[in-house]
Amino acid sequence: MFPYQIAKPDGPLPPNATFDDGLCTLDHPGGAAVAETVARQYDSTERNSIMPLKLGAYTACLHDRPLAEALEVLKADGLTSVEVNTGGFIPSPHCHVDALLASEQARRGYLAEFSSRGMELTGLNCNGNPLNPLPGVGPKHSDDLRRTIELAGLLGVRNIVTMSGTPGSDPDARYPSWVVNPWDGVYMEVLDYQWDVAARYWSEIDALARASDVRVAIEMHPHNLAFSPVTLRKLVDLIGATNIGAEMDPSHLMWQGMDVVACIRWLGPLVFHAAAKDAMITPGVDIRGVLDTSFERVPANDPDKVPTGYGYWCNAWPANPAWRFVAVGIGHDVPYWTEFLRALAEINPDMAVNIEHEDASISRIEGLTIAAGNLRAAAANM
C-alpha cells in the first residue's frame, strides 16, 4: 500500500482513507499515483453520498490476483458491485464452480467474501460461443452456461452474462460463420439455418433459467447471431423468451455507429444488466472501416495469449486499428456516461453497471481507477 495525503474532501472520504491533523491519508494497492487519482475524484462536486444504480466491475482483468485481493482493489475504487467469470472463453479463477455447486457451506463462505466488504455479487459471466460447431468449443461453452445457470440459482445471483453464439453455415459446417450483410440471397439461407439452431438451443436455456429463477443477459457482440438490439429482440421474440434479455455493453454498439442511449430506450425492460466499457474510433478507420480483417496470429508459445477455445486464442490487433477499447471516460466524456446511466436507471434504478477494463494502453489498476472515477462522476450528475 502507498499513502498519499490530501486535504480532507468536502464530501465522503474515499475508501481506505483516514483523517488526522487536517490531512486525509489515502492508501491504494495500485500505488501513490493511483491513490492521488482516486483522491482527486472524491471532490464533493463529483460524488454524491448516495449513488443511483449499483456501480462495480467485472474481475476478469484481475485474473492474476486471488479473489480477496481483487475485491480490495475494487473497494479501494469505491465500487460495490462485482461480476465474476464462470467459464466460456476464459478461465474462472474467482469462482470455483464445481466446488460451489457441491457445497452449501462453500456457497455461504463465498458470498461472505463479498458481503463482509459491503459488496454484492451481481453477475456471473460465461461469455462464449455455445453454438460453435467445433467439438472442443461449442459443447464446452454450452455446458459452462448450464452449470452457471444452476449455480446462479443456488447463490441467489439474478443475472448471467453470456453471448448468443454463432453456428456454422449449414449442418455439415466445421467452423462458425458470421453473416454481416446478406445482400446476396445465399446468405439468407445461411441465416435461416442459424436462427433455427439458435431458436432450439435458446428455448431450452430460457426454460432452464426460468426454472432457476435467474435471467440470461446476452451481450450484443459482433461475431454473434445477436449482435445488435434488433437481432437481440429477434431472438427473444422468436422463442417467446421470458428470462432472456440484454446485457447493455455499449462499447460494441459504439464502434458499430449506434446511438447507445436510443438502443437502451428501444430495448426497454429487456435490458437486464449493464457493462461500463468505452470505445473510440481511431484514425485507422480512414482506410479500414470498422469491419476489418487485418489481424495477425499470436504465436502458440506466447505466454500472454488469451484462449477462446481448445486450440484457439485471440489474434493481435493491427498497429493502426479502426477502433479500440479505452477506459471509461476516454472515448466518451462524463456527460455522455451520465446520459447512459440515466437511461439505464429509467428501466431499473437498482441495475448493476460493471466496469469491463480492456484498455491495453494503460495498466489494469490505473484503468479501473480512471473508469471508476469517471463512472461515479457521471452518476453524481444524474
Task: Explain what the structure shows.
This protein is α/β, with parallel strands linked by helices. The protein contains 12 helices and 15 strands. It has helices at 32-40, 67-76, 97-102, 104-115, 138-155, 186-211, 229-239, 250-255, 260-267, 285-288, 334-347, 364-380, and strands at 2-7, 17-20, 23-28, 54-58, 81-85, 120-125, 159-162, 215-219, 244-248, 271-276, 278-281, 307-309, 312-313, 323-326, 352-355. The strands form 4 sheets. An 8-stranded parallel barrel has the order 4-5-6-7-8-9-10-15, surrounded by 6 helices. A 3-stranded antiparallel β-sheet has the order 1-3-2, with helices on one face. The protein has a two-stranded antiparallel ribbon with strand order 11-14. Strand 8, helix 7 and strand 9 form a beta-alpha-beta unit.
Compose a concise summary of this entry.
By secondary structure, the protein is of the alpha/beta class. It is built from 12 helices and 15 strands. The N terminus is likely disordered.
Write the CATH fold name of the largest domain: TIM Barrel
What spatial order of strands do you see in the largest sheet? 4-5-6-7-8-9-10-15
What is the β-strand count?
A: 15
Please name the CATH architecture of the largest domain: Alpha-Beta Barrel
Query: Helical residue percent?
Result: 25-40%
Structural class per helix/strand content? alpha/beta
When the domains are counted, the total is 2
End-to-end separation in angstroms reads 33 Å
Mean pLDDT: 90
CATH superfamily of the largest domain: Divalent-metal-dependent TIM barrel enzymes
Q: What's the CATH first level of the largest domain? A: Alpha Beta
Largest sheet: 8 strands, parallel, barrel
Report the C-alpha radius of gyration, rounded. 21 Å
What is the 3D form?
globular
The succession of helices and strands, N to C, reads: EEEHEHEHHEHEHEHEHHEEHEEEHEH
Estimated share of beta-strand residues: 15-25%
Give the count of helical stretches. 12
Give the low-pLDDT segments: 1-8, 40-49
